[in-house]
Write a structure and sequence with these properties.
This protein has a domain of 59 residues. It contains eight helices and no strands. The radius of gyration is 25 Å and the shape is elongated. The protein is an all-alpha fold.
Length: 116
C-alpha cells in the first residue's frame, strides 16, 4: 500500500487533472446538460420555490456587501454595449407603441406635482 495523500495533494492533483482535460470535460458537461435539460429545469424550479425567501435574502445580502462592485460592472457593461442597448430599446418601442405610450401617460399622471 502506498503513502496516503494529504487533502492538499489530492486538491492539487484534481486541479491538475481539470486543467489538463479542460476541453474533454467541457464537452462532457455540455452533453450532460443537453441530455438532462428538462430534469435540471424541474429541479431548479422546485428548489427555487422551496427556498424563495432564503435565496432572496442571500441575494440582498450579496448586493449590500458588493454594491459598489456591482454598480461599477453595470456601468462598464452599459458603456461597452451602448449601441446594442439603444438598438434593442428602439426595436422594443417600435414593437410596443401602445404599451410605451400608456406607460409614459401613467408616469406623467403620477408625477404631475414634480413638473410644476
Amino acid at each position: 500500500m502506498g503513502k496516503k495523500k494529504t487533502k492538499e495533494e489530492v486538491a492539487a492533483a484534481m486541479k491538475a487533472y481539470r486543467e489538463a482535460n479542460k476541453e474533454k470535460r467541457a464537452a462532457y458537461m455540455k452533453a450532460y446538460r443537453e441530455a438532462n435539460k428538462e430534469k435540471r429545469a424541474a429541479y431548479d424550479k422546485e428548489h427555487y420555490e422551496a427556498n424563495k425567501e432564503k435565496l432572496a435574502a442571500k441575494a440582498k445580502e450579496y448586493y449590500e456587501a458588493n454594491k459598489e462592485k456591482i454598480a461599477a460592472k453595470t456601468k462598464e457593461y452599459r458603456e461597452a454595449n451602448k449601441e446594442k442597448r439603444a438598438a434593442k430599446t428602439k426595436e422594443y418601442r417600435e414593437a410596443n407603441k401602445e404599451k410605451v405610450a400608456a406607460y409614459q401617460k401613467a408616469y406623467r399622471e403620477a408625477n404631475k406635482c414634480l413638473s410644476s
